[in-house]
C-alpha cells in the first residue's frame, strides 16, 4: 500500500503549472453542470467523485477542477503502478489501489478518508483505461465505499474533442450527486447517460451550455482567421 503525502503548498504550485500546461496543450476546458458540483461541495458529507478513464490526461483534467471543491480536500485513488512510476502524485493526495493484487488495502484507506465529511475521494470506477465511446462498466468498489461511509456519489465525465479548433478541448459533464446506497448498476447507467449526452452535444454550434474554466487562448486557426480579417462567427453561420 502506497500512502499519500499531501502537501497544500505543493498542490497550489502544481495547479499553477498544470493550468499553464493545459493551456498550451488544449484550446480550453469546458464544463456543463457546474451547479451540481457546487451543490455536492456545499453538502456537509463525504464525497466520492466518479469519472470515466480514457487516457493519461484524465487525472490532470481532474486537477483542473480541484479548486472548485472549496468545501472538500481531494484525494485521488490511482493505479499502484502509476504511483510507483510518478511518486510525485503522492504530494497531490494520490493513494494506491493495487488492481493486479489485492485492492483491499487501498479501499480500507479510502474508507478511513471518508470518515471525515470534509474529505472527497476521486475514483475511476471502471478500474482500467478504455477508449472513448466504449461502454462504461462500473466495478462495485465505489458504491461499496459510499454505502459504508454514507458518502454521496458525484458523476463527472470527461470527453476530448477538436471541434473547429486546431487544438483539442476537454469537455466535462457533471451530473447530480447520487445518494449513499446507490447500486453499481444505477451509477453505471447515470455515468453512461451523462457521457452519451455529452457526445451528442459535440456539434461545433451547440455547446453553449458548456462554460469555460478559463478564457481560451486563440488557437492556430483563430489567429489565421484574424490575420485574414475573417469573421469566424459569420463563417460558422
Question: Could you walk me through the main structural features you see in this protein, from its secondary elements to its overall organization?
Answer:
The mean pLDDT is 88. α1 (8-25) packs across α3 (58-65). The protein starts with 7 loop residues before the first helix and ends with a helix. 38% of the residues lie in helices and 18% in strands. The longest helix has 18 residues, at 8-25. It is built from 9 helices and 8 strands. The relative contact order is 0.19. β6 (152-161) and β7 form a beta hairpin. Strands 4-3-5-2-6-7-1-8 form an 8-stranded mixed β-sheet, with helices on both faces. The chain has 237 residues and is of the alpha/beta class.
Radius of gyration: 18 Å
Strand order of the largest sheet: 4-3-5-2-6-7-1-8
Largest sheet: 8 strands, mixed
Indicate the mean pLDDT: 88
Oligomer: single chain
Cα(first) to Cα(last) distance is 55 Å
| Helix-strand string | HEHEHEHEHEHEEHEHH
Count of DSSP H/I helices: 9
The portion of residues forming beta strands comes to 15-25%
From the helix content, strand content and strand pairing, which structural class follows?
Answer: alpha/beta
Annotation, overall tally of beta strands:
8
Percent of residues in helices comes to 25-40%
Regions with little confidence, pLDDT below 50 for 5+ residues? none
Could you list some keywords that capture this structure?
alpha/beta; 237 residues; single chain; 9 helices; 38% helix; 8-stranded mixed sheet
Amino acid at each position: 500500500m502506497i500512502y499519500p503525502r499531501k502537501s497544500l503548498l505543493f498542490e497550489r504550485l502544481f495547479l499553477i503549472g498544470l493550468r499553464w500546461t493545459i493551456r498550451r496543450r488544449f484550446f480550453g476546458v469546458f464544463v456543463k453542470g457546474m451547479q451540481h458540483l457546487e451543490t455536492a461541495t456545499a453538502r456537509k458529507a463525504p464525497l466520492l467523485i466518479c469519472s470515466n478513464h480514457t487516457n493519461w490526461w484524465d487525472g490532470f483534467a481532474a486537477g483542473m477542477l480541484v479548486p472548485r471543491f472549496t468545501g472538500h480536500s481531494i484525494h485521488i485513488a490511482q493505479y499502484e503502478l502509476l504511483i510507483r512510476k510518478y511518486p510525485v502524485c503522492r504530494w497531490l493526495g494520490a493513494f494506491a489501489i493495487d488492481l493486479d493484487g489485492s485492492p483491499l488495502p487501498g479501499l480500507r484507506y479510502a474508507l478511513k478518508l471518508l470518515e471525515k465529511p470534509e474529505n472527497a475521494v476521486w475514483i475511476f470506477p471502471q478500474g482500467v483505461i478504455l477508449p472513448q465511446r466504449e461502454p462504461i462498466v462500473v466495478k462495485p468498489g465505489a458504491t461499496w465505499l459510499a454505502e459504508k461511509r454514507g458518502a454521496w456519489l458525484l458523476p463527472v465525465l470527461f470527453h476530448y474533442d477538436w471541434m473547429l479548433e486546431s487544438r483539442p478541448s476537454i469537455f466535462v459533464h457533471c451530473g447530480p450527486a447520487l445518494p449513499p446506497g446507490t447500486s453499481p448498476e444505477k451509477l453505471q447507467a447515470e455515468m453512461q447517460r451523462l457521457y452519451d449526452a455529452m457526445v451528442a452535444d459535440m456539434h461545433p454550434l451547440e455547446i453553449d451550455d458548456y462554460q469555460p474554466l478559463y478564457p481560451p487562448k486563440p488557437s492556430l486557426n483563430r489567429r489565421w482567421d484574424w490575420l485574414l480579417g475573417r469573421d469566424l462567427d459569420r463563417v460558422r453561420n
